[in-house]
Amino acid sequence: MFEAQVYGIPGDIGVVSQSGQWGASRRTCLGTPFNFAYEWFNTSDNLVIANDAISKLNSHKGDVYEQATSVVTVRDQEAYEFSGGKYTTYGFQYKPGFEGAYIAWIANNELAWILHQEGMAADPRVEISVRPVLQESMYLIANLGISSNFGAVDFAHLQFPSTLRMDWIRV
């Protein structure tokens, strides 16, 4: 749901990626249908970005394991361990199903963006039907993982040991 990223050269700007992945777990390798070229229907009716001065559609659209609906938002640059240690609020709310279903992401204690379910409508180009906002039970994972799947990791500028501090999680 949320991933911290750095854009540009080392130290440029910290952002948070707020994503909904539509697809299989990398561990289970179960298939799920994806839109043609991983392009969901992100029209102005289905994609609402609250403040386009700090948020934009993520360039990552998916891969063989998942299709991503994702926006990146500039975050409070002091909400990092070595640059102020402040806390910031992230969250999401959703209405599962089809009619009127949505997922809304909160970053910096403000609405960042909304995905309306109609963005995952049927795609006749690849013969897939409409997909609902997840109706099954979900769970949260909070960790300090590092991955090179979305770009190179700048190990030369990372400080170890590091900690991920959370004040609270409410479900």
Report what the structure shows.
- The chain is mostly beta strands.
- 0% of the residues lie in helices and 31% in strands.
- The protein is built from no helices and 9 strands.
- It has strands at residues 2-7, 13-23, 47-49, 55-57, 62-63, 66-74, 90-95, 102-107, 110-116.
- The strands form 2 sheets. Strands 1, 2, 4, 5 and 6 form a 5-stranded antiparallel sheet that branches. It has a 4-stranded antiparallel sheet with strand order 3-9-8-7, with no helix packed on it.
- The two termini are 14 Å apart.
Largest sheet: 5 strands, antiparallel
Rg, rounded, reads 17 Å
Secondary structure: helix percent: under 10%
Please work out how many helical segments DSSP would assign: 0
Distance between the termini: 14 Å
State the shape.
Answer: globular
Could you list the spans in which at least 5 consecutive residues all have pLDDT below 50?
25-31
Order of helices and strands: EEEEEEEEE
Number of strands: 9
- Overall pLDDT metric: 84
Please state the structural category. mainly beta
Name the beta content range. 25-35%
Features of the shown structure:
31% strand, single chain, mainly beta, 4-stranded antiparallel beta sheet, 171 residues, 5-stranded antiparallel beta sheet
Task: Note the topology.
Layout: E1 2-7, E2 13-23, E3 47-49, E4 55-57, E5 62-63, E6 66-74, E7 90-95, E8 102-107, E9 110-116
Antiparallel strand pairs: 1-2, 2-6, 3-9, 4-6, 5-6, 7-8, 8-9
Short description:
With 171 residues, this protein is an all-beta fold. It contains no helices and nine strands. Strands 1, 2, 4, 5 and 6 form a five-stranded antiparallel β-sheet that branches. The chain has a four-stranded antiparallel β-sheet with strand order 3-9-8-7, with no helix packed on it.
